Amino acid sequence: MTAGPAVPRLHGVDDGSLPDFMRAFDLTFGQIGTPERVDRLRAWIELDRLVAASVSGQVVATSGAFSFEMSLPFASSAPCAGITLVSVRADQRRRGLLTRMMGSLLDDASERGEPLAALWASEAPIYGRFGFGPAAPTLNLEIERAVRFRTEGPVEDVVLVDRADAGSAFPALYEAARRTRPGTMGRSDGWWRRELDDPDDRREGAGEKRYALLPGRGYATYRLRAGWGAGVPDGTVEVLDLVTLDGVANAALWRFVIDTDLSVRTRAGRRPVDDPLLVSVTDPARLHAGHDWPLQLRLVDLPRALTSRGYRVDDTLVLGVHDAFRPANQGTWRLVVEGGVATCEPTDGPADLELDIATLGAVFLGGQRTTTFAAAGQVTAPDRSAPARLDRLMAADVAPWHGGMF
After folding, report:
1. Most exposed of 72, 123, 349, 353 (fewest Cβ within 10 Å)?
2. Structural domains of the chain, ranges and CATH numbers in brackets
3. What is the mean pLDDT of the chain?
């Protein structure tokens, strides 16, 4: 009798096995790993949150998580597991390996007291079956240099600073902005080193990072990708991070970045769907917006997640929730909001609406509408008013957003 394929073994990762872990990940994603890349990872990776799978001592699958704090509507924040570095080697797919790793990561998040998990999905259909829903849509923007602004803001006050000064000024501005925007994640010191460092192998042929600061009001990190067409400049400004505390500062920093010598366009990915830039220009035909990746969110601990955020209105709804991957969330839950504070308890009563955990994750931050999912047949509502009532409960003052890849 011929033996079947070996069953991969799940295990942790230490400093010594990190190079093998990253080699397996880079191979799957078509990247070229280097010892320098692994050395940089050590500044911000959380080794105790990495999960690998091996066959005969060889890493064939990778996964991990970061320990984040996520801003929530009308509240400070809640712990969130940032799922990352997920890969399965081609010859190990369709064997339940990803399911095992995701189960391990979500169990670990639960044990750490994290009611939420989030990820960026390069292949989104994979993660719906694990309960992740598109909670924070984003935009990909391209702006022509010839665009005009209704107000340019104090462009003259924007200064270019070096990396050290950026490291001193940017984190406080980011943290102040983060607390006003649901979905945004806190950044550790190691994460800031990752954001501000500028190794050659991450430039992909573009120029050095530039750090623009509007003191006390915002900052931008960007670079110029030079180009010459028919003997004239045809460069592209690539915005990596742009955060401001008010709309006038937003206009000033965008104007400063867009007006970069030798460029004809500016591109920025994963921007908020309500970026003030969209209504700051006088000629919107010169600003081209398209869908970008949404941040995917999963409720790991349903009652704790629903009671962690704040609410603008009061109501009582009974939610019938389907969650085959984490059965503890499965069932009927009575959500009661009084004075903006929620309680959530299991109940035997009939549900006002029924939805799966991925849909609940999608609407949790107020970035998607339950009524849209109901219209698409993905929410069942014996009480026809229930989808709109859940939308009113989940509404936030601004669109949820997180722009940084992890």
Report:
1. 123
2. 9-131 (3.40.630.30), 139-292 (3.40.630.30), 302-394 (3.30.1050.10)
3. 95
